[in-house]
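Title: Prediction job returns without error message
Component: structure pipeline
Severity: low
Priority: P3
Assignee: unassigned

Description:
Job completed but the reporter wants confirmation the result is attached to the right record. Sequence as submitted:
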Amino acid sequence: MFEDIDIFNLFQFLFVVGVLIYCVYVSFSMKHITIQLEEEKAYNKYLESNGLNRFELEQEAFENIDFESTEKKEKDVEYFLEQTRNLDCRELDLCTNFIGMYPRNLYAIDRRASLNYLLERYDEAIKDYNYLMRKEPKNFFHVEGCARMYAHTDNLNTALNLINNFYKNKKRDADYFSALGDVFGIVKDYKLSVKNYSEAIKLEPDNEILYMSRAHIYREMGDEEKYQKDTQKYENLRKSKKL
């Protein structure tokens, strides 16, 4: 049976099929990226048309902070955070109006979920993340975001199930352990949080964000030495990547 098969022609056929599958994948990925960019552009244009340019407003508020005076700096930082929260509230209203007009804009829905998180409206954020997970089930960022919200609402098991189910048939990478570190940090299980961030760092030792995340937990634990060490590592990695 196998004697009649031309091995060379079979190899050529399999190669062509592989190339076609790859081309289809690349085409689909590029189309998806293009849609995301168009959605983001439309959303930002809507904000600007309603007089909201977050970057300029936040930059202006930040520049007004007097870092020379400790007493004044505290008041200025407090004012900056208040202004930022006001911008979050203002953007949330505009975002909700935009979604009412364009309910399929996933970028805007993701942005609304983030704003609800910043404003500690966790239940509302969960609704948006659940919708996003249904629309983009392979996007782990939606899963991670939703898991954080469940952790904030004292639903640790639900948060862990979301993360573990996503990785049920996948190799556990740095994103997996980082997500667990986030969730355990939120519920103040600091030992497990550090353990998972450390596992993530083993897999991605040059990821500066992981060091900053772990540093935050060390500070919550009152371990100033380890906090300083991780913060310094974060700064060193950032500087090296700018060179």
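Comment from assignee: result matches the submitted record. Residues 24-29 have pLDDT under 50 and may be disordered.
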